[in-house]
Write a structure and sequence with these properties.
It comes from Planosporangium flavigriseum. Belongs to the aldehyde dehydrogenase family. The structure is a single chain. The chain has 15 helices and 20 strands. With 474 residues, it is an alpha/beta fold. It is globular, with a radius of gyration of 24 Å. The termini are far apart. Bound molecules: NADP nicotinamide-adenine-dinucleotide phosphate.
Length: 474
């Protein structure tokens, strides 16, 4: 007689949001399989940690090269699974490969021992790996989110268990294959097909030493609570409702370009996105009008077609959630300048939407709108812009558009966010740290800071044998 599995197997489906066709289904893992994967990752850690950073970096660099060789396959998988416009999916592959290249080339240098001057003998802080890490990742950038966690941590010597979002299983498998083909030994990078509700049990496994979650604040709080009980290190990259502050009408065409790109990239399903446009009074009406023209010109269609400019959202549920947020906000008294409804065609399409006259108490004032929906606010001056920008539970990114760079920098300093871009929509590149404050989480990914999050900053203090023995304290 076989033992009863501890959790019934269900399935994880890859569904094309363009037409709601089920592409593939995969069985979820039962507890025993997950435990075996954790044990294998722990076992693999023993060998992986003993390689030099340079040796581990070869695998990560190779993964970057392979990703570019498989550019078309990766991009098509992403577009099929979550509806991203094909050109943006290709851009995501390029950025992800660049992140792997960056850590493959620069990672070892970022991990060198740091000597500390002492009066006698030597002291050094050595950067050593922690062990098995769990990554819990979202669907909106199915490749980029994973590599910015896995790339640096593999170079640092940790081993990775990756629980991807339940709606992008094909991307998850393609990434596991990528690291295996790049030369990662068995157990060094393992995909876990489990649902979010099972993550807590994995964190309870004492072999897991750290967790990085990118996703909603709800999921982040749940993971942080569990990790706290297990005294595991966490990094949380959560939601955002970024301000996009426009202080003057100089370079107005460029400002409108930045606003539209900032809000519509990834169909508005980006953590850093111009979700709250805050515009000074003298140019406010002109701004709304020009933005309306830009949004109204979008063409819905197949995200595989390079001519399409308005693709579907990631799922039916995502589309329904967005429309309900918009409709509730309008019912609460906001003005609907454009859009606001589902598009009458199959798939998870929502009209590009602009809301104005949004006030405290309305849903769109407090909640993150994850889709092609902009809220535009009118403010009298710089002080009012900053006050409105900071009146939000999130603190991820922000943008200041202003030709006077001294003024722009002054406003940037006053924003309660982890990142600010001046005169450009938010973006990401391998060498720049990425992360937020407040309900947007803590810790940083990318750059030097990103590789330092899950390392043991191990002090090794050496005394000459001739030195006197002092008091032990600590
Ligand atoms: P989500 O529901 O939090 O899902 C993200 C991941 O967490 C998925 O793998 C999900 O698994 C898992 N999960 C869900 N509930 C969980 C729980 N209680 N315990 C442990 N894991 C859990 O987020 P989403 O709606 O897919 O993603 C959008 C959110 O991510 C937005 O708020 C966006 O702003 C944020 N985001 C932030 C960043 C950043 O860098 N700060 C980047 C991208 C996205 P299942 O799929 O199985 O439910």
């Amino acid at each position: 007689m076989t033992a009863t599995p501890s959790v019934t197997r269900t399935s994880i489906a890859s569904i094309n949001p363009y037409n709601n066709e089920v592409l593939r289904e995969f069985p979820t893992m039962i507890d025993e399989e997950v435990e075996r994967a954790v044990a294998a990752a722990h076992e693999a850690f023993r060998g992986w940690r003993d390689l030099t950073p340079d040796e581990r970096a070869i695998v990560v660099r190779r993964a970057g090269e392979l990703m570019l060789e498989r550019r078309d396959e990766f991009a098509r998988t992403v577009t099929c699974e979550m509806g991203k416009l094909i050109g943006e999916s290709q851009g995501e592959v390029d950025l992800s490969a660049d992140i792997l290249r960056y850590y493959g080339e620069v990672g070892p240098a970022l991990l060198v021992d740091q000597p500390i001057p002492v009066e006698d003998g030597a002291a050094v802080v050595a950067n050593r790996p922690l062990g098995v890490l769990l990554g819990v990742m979202p669907w909106n950038y199915p490749l980029y989110q994973v590599v910015r966690f896995a790339g640096p941590n593999l170079v640092a010597g940790n081993t990775i268990l990756l629980k991807h979002a339940s709606n992008c299983p094909q991307s998850a498998l393609a990434l596991e294959r990528l690291f295996r083909d790049a030369g990662a030994p068995e157990g060094v990078y393992t995909n876990l097909f489990v649902r979010g509700s099972r993550v807590g049990r994995i964190i309870d496994n004492p072999l897991v030493q750290g967790v990085s979650l990118t996703g909603s604040d709800r999921a982040g709080a749940s993971v942080a609570e569990k990790a706290g009980r297990n005294i595991d290190k966490t990094v949380l990259e959560l939601g955002g409702s970024d301000p996009f502050i426009v202080l003057d009408g100089e370079d107005f065409d460029r400002t409108i370009d930045a606003a539209a790109v900032g809000r519509l990239s990834n169909m508005g399903q980006s953590c850093v996105s111009a979700k709250r446009m805050i515009v000074v009074s003298d140019i406010y009406y002109d701004f709304v009008d020009r933005l309306r023209h830009r949004f109204a010109a979008l063409t819905p269609g197949d995200p595989m077609d390079p001519a399409t400019t308005l693709g579907p959202l990631s799922s039916e549920q995502a589309a329904e959630n967005l429309v309900s947020q918009i409709q509730d906000t309008v019912a609460q008294g906001a003005t609907l300048v454009l859009g606001g409804k589902r598009i009458d065609r199959p798939g998870a399409f929502v009209e590009a939407t602009i809301l104005t006259d949004v006030r405290p108490g309305m849903r769109a004032y407090h909640e993150e709108l994850f889709g092609p929906a902009a809220v535009v606010y009118q403010v009298a001056d710089e002080d009012e812009a900053v006050a409105l920008a900071n009146d939000n539970p999130y603190g991820l990114g922000g943008v200041v558009m202003c030709r006077d760079l001294v003024r722009a920098r002054r406003v940037a300093e006053r924003l309660d966010t982890g990142m600010v871009w001046i005169n450009h929509p938010t973006s990401s590149s391998p060498e720049l740290p990425f992360g937020g404050i407040k309900c947007s989480g803590y810790g940083r990914e990318l750059g030097d800071l990103g590789i330092q999050e899950f390392v043991n900053k191990k002090l090794i203090r050496t005394f000459p044998t001739t030195s006197a023995i002092g008091f032990a304290q600590g």
